[in-house]
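Notebook entry, structure prediction.
Reason for the run: the old model in the group folder had no record of what sequence produced it. Starting over properly, with the input documented here first.
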Amino acid sequence: MTHIAIVKGDAVQTDRTWMTFADGETRQVAVHVVHDLPHLVVESVFDIHDGLWGVLARGGFSTANRAAAARGPRRVRLITDAPLDDLAQRHWVGHMVAKTATNAVVNRWGEGPDTAQGVRSRLAPGASLVEPAAHNSADAAAGEAYRRGIRELLERVDDDTIERAIRQVGNAAAVWARLPPGEALHVEWPLPQSFFELEREADAG
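New structure, fully documented this time:
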């Protein structure tokens, strides 16, 4: 497992995240909690290992990570604003599948109910979440790999798992909202399956 420490700042721009790798090295990574904490939950619950966090855990997105650590005036705003390194490029389709799945679970644009069926509808062929990302690919093979990845995800993830992802994304947001500035949320990649259910219970207690 890879340890992750997400430190809450006084504003979203000052949140900071560090990952400690298997070799003991700790590096700052260029994630944005409001977008990427849900990624952590969904990728863990759906067992997606070539999405954002899986690639970060292997040392990917190194250009964006160096920019985040520099904290300069031209600091990268999103991890994909920086040129992709070779590892991130090789797993770009997986990243896009994970991003689409996360947006479907979060229901970022308020399309349909927050249920397993709602998520499946948002991921169905022709859905607005899926088609733009697929058609914007300049590489036809990558576009087809992306669509295949979505289809395979829908086939292997059952409704109970989708409902767990919905629930834990909400719990994660609540835990993060209650965390005082200057405090850290300590998690692992991948998350234990019940992590944010247990964390929410502890938080409420």
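Summary: The chain has one domain: 2-204.
The old model has been moved to the deprecated folder.
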